[in-house]
Structures are given as structure tokens and as C-alpha cells.
Design a protein that fits this description.
Helix content: 25-40%
Radius of gyration: 22 Å
CATH architecture of the largest domain: 3-Layer(bba) Sandwich
Number of helices: 10
Largest sheet: 8 strands, mixed
Structural class: alpha+beta
Number of domains: 2
CATH superfamily of the largest domain: FAD/NAD(P)-binding domain
CATH topology of the largest domain: FAD/NAD(P)-binding domain
CATH class of the largest domain: Alpha Beta
Distance between the termini: 32 Å
């Protein structure tokens, strides 16, 4: 915990310094004199804002339709732009891809996008935090909220210090889904948790996926609820991220100032909506992740497309310098067999989508292309909200990707603004 003297009461406590927390903090600080405390358990915000920092500014990308109208989203996106100052990526010459996609019942969305890069995101976050401090927001980094009091408006920090509040906004993100579930149970908030995205991350040479030269992060929707997600090119790398009990893969790209490695990676995700008897998407994702850990000896797996098509597992010697003319950027992935560890229905739908993608952008299924597994996105603690501004109980709000109100930086920031707007309506 930082060496920071905290008060025993704040008008508003915001838990989490990701985009939803920042959106709420700026809205409140710029429009009221409320005493605001922003709490972050790490040294710096993590998640999408820290890793790659890719931003989408076109509805409905990132905005769940059950919570957002086009008009609401576009109005708040203008506020997001005022704080993030995005430099939009160019989008050129994609009509041929769109026409090919239509013939295959595939939809390519045209999205306004901006990209910061993992190497520059820390400066952006630190600048935003300093602006909040200049606005008299108390920012407590490396400070963890242990629990909410079930009987009164009070939190207990990890060191035992208790702080009371008038309003609290919870935006801890997807990674802390279990903590969020525990707190909702404590304060009597009903929620569901039955949706999860399961998929792979594809890595290949840019020449095999040339669409990225004209469209930085192509948003492509396939039948059977499969989609592309988080495309990285230029100086692009696959990373392994630690979750509770397993690893998931993800993709990063550095800013354009870094030397390009001429590789591209993107996720192919299938959305799974579970029903009885299995109703926890978080637990389902964890089980699949742990299965891969068992089969790989404690890591994630990878397989070359050439081997997958032949129905044989990849081996270390498969990754040679003959046909396979680039090295995997995730060196601690284990060469293995996707079909042994991914549920057949999920694998079948993703492979069908990849074959369609190869008809739209020929070359992506080159034999050297690598398929990494698993990539798991657990979005879906979905509280029962009392109003459109994400109130779950009088004075309590839950926002961001971890609450299912958004999927991505700009929509998460917008959800924080909506919660703040509800508090400002009652400004004293």
C-alpha cells in the first residue's frame, strides 16, 4: 500500500483504475466538488488500457445492445475522445474484402480505431492519473479493498482500515470476477454468470494477412457466434497471461516507432452461452484452461496449421526453418494437438470460420500459421441493475467489462460516465 493518509469518509469511492473507473472519476471530478477516492490494487492499471491500448469508437463494438442505444453510445464516445485524444488509424481499400465476405454470410464491420501500443500505454495512464490528482481526486495505488460491509456503506482495506462512503462505483475488471462475485453475495446483489468466449490466437506473417495494411484491427463476424478480436500487426507479439488456476494467451503490439517484425496475430473467439446444469461461464473457462495446463505440463499450447490439416500433433521439430519460416513469438508455448484439448463443437465452428476467412483474405491458413490455445475472455458477471446507469443497490454501482456493461476500453469508460451521471443527478 502507498504511504498515503486516507480519510475515514468519501463522497464517492471508485474501485479500479481501468477505463470504467477513470471515466467515472473524470466525470465526477470535473462536474462536482465531491470528495473522491480512486483505489487501485496494482502499481498501474492493467487490462486493455495497459496492454496494447486499442480503442474502438464505432457503435456497437464494445457496447452490449441490451444496455446501449446508438445515440447514447455516440454521445459518450465524444467525452471519451476528449480524455484519450485518439489518433485514428486509416481504413482503406477494404471493399473487396467486404464483398467477398457477404458471399459467405460473413460481416466485416467498419470501425473507427486508435492504437497506443504497450510501450506507450504506461505514460498515458500515468498522465491520466496525474490529471485526476490535479483535480483533487485522492488516488491510492497498491491499495486493495478486502471487502464491502454487508450492513452499512463501508469498505475494509487489506490492512484493516475502514472507509465509509455515500456512493461506490466498482469496476475491478474481468480478472477479479471471483472477488466481485463475493462482494455481490455480501451486499445482496443478484447476478448471472453464464457467458464466456473461448478461442484461439492466430499468428502468421503479414504477407499472409494483408488486410491489416488497410484496416488496423478488422472486426469480422462469422456464423455460429464466432468473431475476430484484437488484431495486432507491425511489432506484434503473443503473450501468456496468468489467471486464477490457468494461463490464457493474448496479443500485444508496440507503437509504430518500434521496429516491425512483420508478423500479425488475432483472436478467433466463439461466444458460449451456458444453460442448466452448467451455468458459470467463469468456471467453464477455468476448467478448459486447467485441462490445457495438464496436457501441456503447465503452459499453453500451439499447433501449426499444416499439422492440424494433416490430423497430426505439432512437435518441437515441426517448428523448423524450412516451410515454417518464422519463429513463434511465444517461446514458452508447447507444441501439441488442438483437437485433443478443445471441445469439438468450439473447434469445429472456429475452424469453419477460419476457412471462410482464408477465402476472404487468401493466405491466412498458410501451413506455417500458428494456432495458440486457449484464449479465454470471461466478461460475464452480469448483475441485476436497478436502473440504466448500472445501479445495483442504493449508492452502489458496478461497471466495466467485469460487469458485462462493456467490452473494451471506450465502452468501459462510457459505462463509468453513466454511473457518475447518476450520482451527479443527486449532487448536493
Amino acid at each position: 500500500m502507498e504511504n498515503l493518509k486516507l480519510n475515514s469518509f468519501y463522497d464517492v469511492i471508485i474501485v479500479g483504475s481501468g477505463p470504467s473507473g477513470l471515466g467515472a472519476a473524470f466525470k465526477l471530478a470535473e462536474n462536482s466538488d465531491k470528495k473522491i477516492l480512486l483505489i487501485e490494487k496494482k502499481k498501474i492499471s492493467s487490462g486493455g488500457l495497459r496492454n496494447d491500448c486499442k480503442q474502438n469508437y464505432t457503435y456497437p463494438v464494445g457496447f452490449p445492445l441490451e444496455y446501449w442505444s446508438k445515440e447514447e453510445a455516440h454521445a459518450l464516445l465524444e467525452e471519451v475522445k476528449n480524455h484519450l485524444n485518439p489518433k485514428m488509424e486509416k481504413r482503406l481499400n477494404i471493399d473487396k474484402y467486404i464483398q467477398r465476405a457477404k458471399k459467405l454470410d460473413v460481416n466485416i464491420l467498419t470501425i473507427d480505431q486508435a492504437h497506443v501500443g504497450t510501450d506507450k500505454s504506461s505514460k498515458l495512464i500515468n498522465d491520466l492519473i496525474q490529471k485526476l490528482r490535479d483535480l483533487k481526486v485522492t488516488v491510492a495505488l497498491q491499495t486493495e479493498v478486502k471487502e464491502l460491509n454487508e450492513n452499512k456503506k463501508e469498505i475494509t482495506l487489506d490492512n484493516g482500515f475502514k472507509i465509509e462512503f455515500e456512493n461506490i462505483i466498482l469496476g475491478p475488471g474481468r480478472a477479479d470476477y471471483d472477488w466481485m462475485q463475493t462482494q455481490m453475495d455480501r451486499i445482496g446483489v443478484t447476478y448471472s454468470d453464464n457467458i464466456v468466449d473461448i478461442g484461439i490466437r492466430v499468428e502468421t506473417k503479414e504477407e499472409n494477412y494483408p488486410i491489416v495494411k488497410d484496416y488496423y484491427d478488422p472486426k469480422i463476424l462469422f456464423p455460429n457466434k464466432v468473431r475476430t478480436f484484437c488484431t495486432n500487426s507491425g511489432c506484434a507479439h503473443i503473450v501468456r497471461e496468468k489467471y486464477k488456476g490457468y494461463y490464457s494467451v493474448n496479443g500485444h503490439s508496440l507503437s509504430k516507432e518500434k521496429k516491425a517484425n512483420n508478423l500479425v496475430n488475432f483472436a478467433m473467439l466463439k461466444t458460449i452461452r451456458l444453460t442448466q446444469p452448467v451455468v458459470s461461464g467463469q468456471q467453464f473457462g477455468k476448467i478448459l484452461g486447467q485441462m490445457v495446463m495438464q496436457l501441456s505440463g503447465g503452459s499453453v499450447i500451439m499447433q501449426r496449421v499444416g499439422d492440424f490439416r494433416l490430423g497430426q500433433r505439432s512437435k518441437k521439430e515441426t517448428f523448423n526453418e524450412d516451410l515454417y519460416d518464422f519463429k513463434p513469438t511465444l517461446s514458452n508455448a508447447v507444441a501439441a494437438d488442438l483437437s485433443l484439448s478443445m471441445p469439438a463443437k468450439i473447434l469445429r465452428d472456429i475452424w469453419s470460420a477460419l476457412k471462410k476467412l482464408d477465402s476472404i483474405v487468401p493466405g491466412v491458413l498458410h501451413p506455417s500459421t500458428i494456432l495458440y490455445y486457449p484464449e479465454i475472455k470471461t466478461y460475464s458477471n452480469k448483475p441485476q441493475f436497478l436502473n440504466k446507469n448500472f445501479m445495483v443497490k442504493e449508492g452502489y454501482y458496478i461497471v466495466g467489462d467485469g460487469a458485462g456493461t462493456s467490452r473494451g476500453i471506450t465502452a468501459a469508460w462510457s459505462s463509468g460516465i453513466r454511473a457518475a451521471n447518476d450520482i451527479l443527478k443527486n449532487k448536493k
